[in-house]
Design a protein that fits this description.
419 residues, 18 helices, globular, 2 domains
Length: 419
């Protein structure tokens, strides 16, 4: 691990630390002030907003990161990518706003939480402004850390001051959105300060090309949403906001644990791309090392979370959230399963150019999850939702292993001198 990679991982740990430190500080307060029904309504509304963020991202955090990593020294190329991606994201944000507004008008359950949804939709603007893909591609994650940490720390006092009753769920969403916008503005200031880009006027051809390049990754992220974001939405429609409250409460703790390994995912992806472009042998050696150490770490992490689930729920939320314990015990194994699928999928299949196969795997898994989640949430509410997510992630990982073996990709064994 060289100095640059170490600094990037440390910076991303700083971001994740703040991203999960804030919930750990504010979450016990929010779940008590908002009550399960208010907190569930907030989780349900923000899940709708996540659809818009997903559409706005359009897979650029992977496709554009990959291009920046390869062309990071070419200022003209980087500038063209920057303005093209920004133009695409702005158009997607506007489209998502129109679609959600129409859905709120026609769907009563969405209309009931419309003020929370609109408060959270400002988060999409922050998503447009924050060029995470540019910083990742250039392996300059330290500035991402500064932008995020500075803005998000402001959320702590604001939540304690302005959120103090169940009707204030929309205020919590608004605070999150505004701090996200601030983080985006700070990050753009850094881009301007470093003179990384010059003005380039995107053409319709340029924008269409960017959309085509990111299409398979977008389909992949859309498929992932079928067993992540959609789980919360479907649970809300079938079982109501209280079940969503229990599910989201457990999921927040799971995400906090997953945050311990996410920095490795983000920092290693551009490094694996750059290494593989120079030498496939060195690239596969790097992936093998990632698989070994990431597998060990995530297994231990999942085991600890499974064994301490009752204690974690009790400390974070109190007795009124005891129903979230079995949910967390199931979801405790997700960091291990997701850690493996990240190596097999993002660090291997995507890096080697198997974008179409990657998206097909996730689309298949997303469809399977929708089939599973409908009966499981109907009969078992939040526990059924957690079961569906875990089974789907296991299916994703298993299919990826089969594809790697069938394609004779030398990830597990083989003479790398012949690569």
């Amino acid at each position: 691990m060289d100095k640059t990679l170490f600094k990037n991982i440390a910076s991303l740990f700083g971001i994740q630390g703040v991203n999960y430190l804030i919930p750990l500080i504010t979450l016990p307060y929010l779940v008590r002030v908002l009550d399960p029904i208010g907190y569930g309504s907030l989780g349900f509304a923000l899940a709708i907003v996540q659809y818009c963020c997903m559409l706005t991202d359009y897979g650029f955090n992977l496709s554009a990161t990959q291009q920046i990593a390869v062309h990071r020294g070419d200022k003209q190329k980087v500038s063209k990518l920057f303005w093209n991606v920004l133009g695409c994201k702005a158009g997607m944000a506007l489209f998502s706003l129109l679609v959600v507004s129409a859905a709120i008008y026609w769907v009563p359950k969405l209309n009931d939480v419309s003020i929370i949804i609109y408060s959270g939709l400002l988060m999409v603007l922050g998503n447009v402004l924050f060029p995470t893909w540019l910083f990742q591609g250039k392996e300059k994650m330290g500035w991402i850390a500064i932008s995020n940490i500075t803005a998000r720390l402001l959320a702590i006092p604001l939540i304690f001051i302005f959120v103090n009753k169940p009707e204030h769920a929309y205020v919590a969403a608004l605070i999150t959105s505004l701090t996200t916008i601030l983080a985006g503005c700070i990050s753009l200031y850094f881009v301007w300060l470093q003179r990384w880009v010059v003005w380039y006027k995107p053409t319709l051809t340029d924008l269409a090309e960017m959309l085509r390049d990111g299409w398979h990754i977008f389909i992949s992220t859309a498929a992932i949403s079928l067993y992540t974001t959609s789980t919360t939405v479907i649970l809300g429609f079938i079982s109501g906001p209280i079940a969503v409250g229990y599910f989201v409460a457990a999921d927040k703790l799971r995400l906090a644990m997953l945050g311990l390994i996410t920095p490795f995912f983000q920092a290693l992806y551009p490094r694996v791309n750059a290494t593989m472009a120079k030498s496939k042998r060195e690239g596969f050696l790097l992936i093998r090392e990632i698989l070994k150490w990431q597998g060990i770490f995530t297994f231990v992490l999942s085991l600890v979370m499974f064994m301490t689930a009752p204690l974690l729920i009790s400390l974070a939320y109190g007795e009124q959230y005891d129903a979230a314990v079995p949910v967390l015990m199931l979801m405790a194994w997700l960091p291990f399963v997701i850690g493996l699928s990240n190596v097999f999928g993002m660090q291997t299949l995507l890096v080697l150019g198997y974008k179409a196969i990657f998206s097909k795997i996730l689309m298949t898994a997303g469809i399977i999850n929708v089939i599973l989640i409908l009966p499981l949430t109907y009969f078992y509410a939040e526990v059924g939702a957690a079961t569906s997510v875990l089974l789907t992630e296991i299916i994703v990982t298993t299919i990826m292993i089969v594809v790697i073996i069938k394609k004779k990709i030398p990830l597990f064994k083989g003479n790398l001198n012949e690569v």
